[in-house]
Amino acid sequence: MHFFSVVAAAATLIAGSNALFIPRNIHVADFRLYGGEDCFAGNLGVWTVIDDDFKNGECKSLNDEEDGAVPHSLNLTDINNGCTLTAYTDLKCTEGTTVLAPQQCSKNTVGYQAWSMTCDYKE
Ligand SMILES: *[C@@H]1O[C@H](CO)[C@@H](O)[C@H](O)[C@H]1NC(C)=O
Fold first, then answer.
1. Does residue 49's CB lie within 6 angstroms of at least one atom of ligand 1?
2. Domains along the chain?
3. Which keywords does this chain's UniProt record carry (predicted)?
4. What is the CA(29)–ligand 1 centre distance, in A?
């Protein structure tokens, strides 16, 4: 994996800019989390998703807040073209399925527990 990255990086340097080349660790999306349901109260910070963080559709927990705060609203501040971010109200990504729309406040009384991401350039 590391060897491949080095080779890929070297190939990019040699080939120059190539729009079809997908580098690792690229920034994919940011979303803000709030304890309140209005995307204002109880700001819990920004969650940044990079390409290495997920496989398409993989269920990821949102519960790494040290104080155990459950986010009740999310604002997807930016997301790459071709990617879709979905939030869920359970840890198995089966309940409260909410596709996040950019710059919108997605809220849920129960609170969000997990997320998944799908990008059409990934397998
Ligand atoms: C979402 O966040 C953006 C960037 O901080 C802000 O401009 C926008 O007003 C927010 N939208 C909502 C619905 O809170």
1. no
2. 27-119 (2.60.20.10)
3. Signal
4. 14
